[in-house]
Amino acid sequence: MTPRSADPELACDIFCAVVDNFGDIGVCWRLARQLHAEHGWRVRLYVDDLKVFHALCPEVDATLERQVAMGVTIEHWREPSHAGDTLAIPDVVIEAFACELPHAYIAAMARRDAKPVWINLEYLSGEDWVADFHMRPSPHPRYPLDKSFFFPGLGEGTGGVLKERDLDTRREQFDADAWWRERIGIERPGGGETVVSLFAYENPAVDALLAQWRDGDEPVVVLVPEGRISGALARFFGMPKFAAGMSSRAGALRAHALGFVEQPRFDELLWAADINFVRGEDSFVRAQWAQKPFVWHIYPQADDAHLPKLDAALAHCTRTLDPSARDAVARFWHAWNGAGVPDWADFWRHRPKLESCAARWAKELADVGDLAGNLVAHVASRLVR
Ligand code: TRH
Prior knowledge:
By secondary structure, this protein is α/β, with parallel strands linked by helices. It folds into two domains: 11-162 and 368-380, Rossmann fold (3-Layer(aba) Sandwich); 167-366, Rossmann fold (3-Layer(aba) Sandwich). It has helices spanning 23-39, 50-56, 103-111, 129-133, 167-172, 176-184, 206-215, 230-237, 263-272, 282-289, 307-317, 323-336, 344-348, 351-366, 371-382; strands at residues 11-16, 42-47, 66-69, 72-76, 92-96, 117-121, 136-139, 146-150, 194-198, 220-225, 247-250, 253-258, 275-279, 294-297. Strands 3-4-2-1-5-6-8-7 form an eight-stranded mixed beta sheet, covered by helices on one side. Helix 7 (206-215) links the parallel strand 9 and strand 10 (220-225). It starts with 10 loop residues before the first strand and ends with a helix. Bound molecules: 2'-deoxy-thymidine-beta-L-rhamnose.
């Protein structure tokens, strides 16, 4: 039997329901592009909110039912029961983050002679249990179909996280001077200034942090993509808003607001900064590949279900730090996620150690393998003809 993974025409549908924010479509769009560009798959992406998608990919026209962007066919998933007009079932079906597939679609999957490989792509967690559950099949109660649970993760035995093949090369070739002129309209700050990127949800700890930067001895330049934390910046600087293109300063702190950029350019912000505050899932992963110190504002869940995930990520990312630096990072991350007041000086005095740890961690994480490659390997093991 010949594995079908070598088939350049392997067809895949990805279903994505946007719950809120940008992470759901952020992950699906990155995966879709990668499966097409790096593995030659024919990918169709069903998305229920094209307006959010448009922010990440401006060439997506929110009024169209069907379109192609970057080689990926995009279908407007109008309602949960809508399954496209043709109901052509591909070789691989990926349901992202437990969004429910249309019933008519599942019935058509069951009618297909060669059953598709059906994968539920889960949210990322660094917790240990993930490796035990990764790729566990679950038989459908009514149809002769198996669904596998694909768990992204930060450790061995998990699905890993997405990383494009050319990412490190793009990072190494990044022209920071040109970026500062183009995006901020000023020369790149000198080595004596600490550049911070700040992508976060509303966060009660931000006022204390801004005040520490303002009152500190070292100059800090903070770059803020316009979004949920912008209101706090505006209040801090006494401005009506802190919108893209606006700047302000107070004491040792300078701040610049940035417009939202298409997803492939988001990494540049992380490469331009000395330390990155990131959130959710996809920007959290990108910060790890940026090989810079970072602080994670995790997506808050009911009953504090996110806190064990935060600690699991801390354990992975800081594993090679000495105890004093590791404790400082844990204190700072916890404060940024609602437990205590952040102490910038206590955290940033460890900067050299945090920088070398970030580079070590990116290498360790790469050993788990790229999620798209791991998924393709799984499909290859299941699809035979
Ligand atoms: O937007 P998020 O908060 O998304 C969240 C999380 O995914 C969370 O786990 C999920 O449950 C919730 O959504 C529904 O953060 P995240 O995951 O970092 O996604 C942001 C995306 O936006 C990421 O792909 C990077 C992208 N981005 C751009 O493309 N351009 C930009 O200018 C910026 C600031 C971000």
